[in-house]
Amino acid sequence: EQVGTYAGLSGATHVASVELPDERLDHLVELFVPKKVVRIQMEFLDTPGLAVGAHESRKGNARLLGTLREVDALALIVRQFASDVVAHPLEAIDPARDVAEIETELVVADLDVVEKRIEKIAHALKRTSADTKGLEAERELLTRVAGALGDGKGADSLELSDDERKLIAPFALLTLRPRIVIVNLDEQALADEAWRAGLTDPPHRVGIDAKIGRAHV
Fold first, then answer.
1. Across the strands, what pairs with 46?
2. Which end of the chain has fewer CB atoms within 10 angstroms, the N or the C?
3. Are strands 41-46 and 205-209 parallel, antiparallel or unpaired?
4. Residue 53 CB neighbour total at 10 angstroms
5. Kind of pairing, strands 205-209 and 179-185?
6. For the chain, percent helix, then strand, then coil, each to nearest 5?
7. 3-class SS of residue 81
């Protein structure tokens, strides 16, 4: 597609489905020659960028964040190249700052969800005289999560048991999603390790030159 500027949240979400290669399946197909082969498909959602910072911007993020809660993993795409064609919304080029801004928006979004649920539990506990053990356990866990989020840390910074993860799974917390940082570089910077500076959380990073299709892990 044509590269150019766009008006942030006004952009559309594009969906692509990619067939995953599997040598084991290829071998089985050769052996048994089935009439039909159903291969694993991975679906990618290319969304507009999050608006960052202001309360009004966060309100505008609501629908996009709802879309992100439906995915299994997040790729945070930031840039380290200057362009007269595609202006950076924050003017200065700083991938580490951009990742921190995105992470902050994810934390704030999760904190909003968790605090609302804690408030509902509090109301429910006042209204019911039935067994409240389950609600109290949920509130205790969510209070721990809210504490981490309030400190600016993701829910994934907590040591959560499998049972605890199952308990909060319905809230689809964004900071529990696996995340990878993709830094879009120009060709000259592709082999320069300087683009990694400050990108320590989350730990998975890859540099790409999207224009020519090369990557540097």
1. 14
2. N
3. unpaired
4. 12
5. parallel
6. 45, 15, 40
7. coil
What own/partner pairs with CB < 8 Å and gap ≥ 24 does 29-38 have?
A: none
Average pLDDT over the chain, rounded to an integer: 82
Residue at token pair 């696996």? 178
Kindly report, residue by residue over 111-143, the tens digit of the pLDDT.
999 999 999 999 998 887 667 888 999 999 999
- Quickly state the pLDDT bin for 9 (edges 50, 70, 90): low
How far is C-alpha 197 from the geometric centre of its chain's CA atoms? Answer: 21
User: Whole-model pTM?
Assistant: 0.81
Give residue 148's Cα distance to chain centre.
18
Enumerate the H helices of the chain as residue ranges. Answer: 23-32, 55-60, 62-68, 95-127, 133-150, 162-168
Alpha carbon separation from 119 to 80, 113, 116, 131, 135 (Å, rounded): 42, 10, 5, 18, 12
Tokens found for residue 68: 């992100």
Find out whether 171 and 113 touch, Cβ atoms under 8 Å. Answer: yes
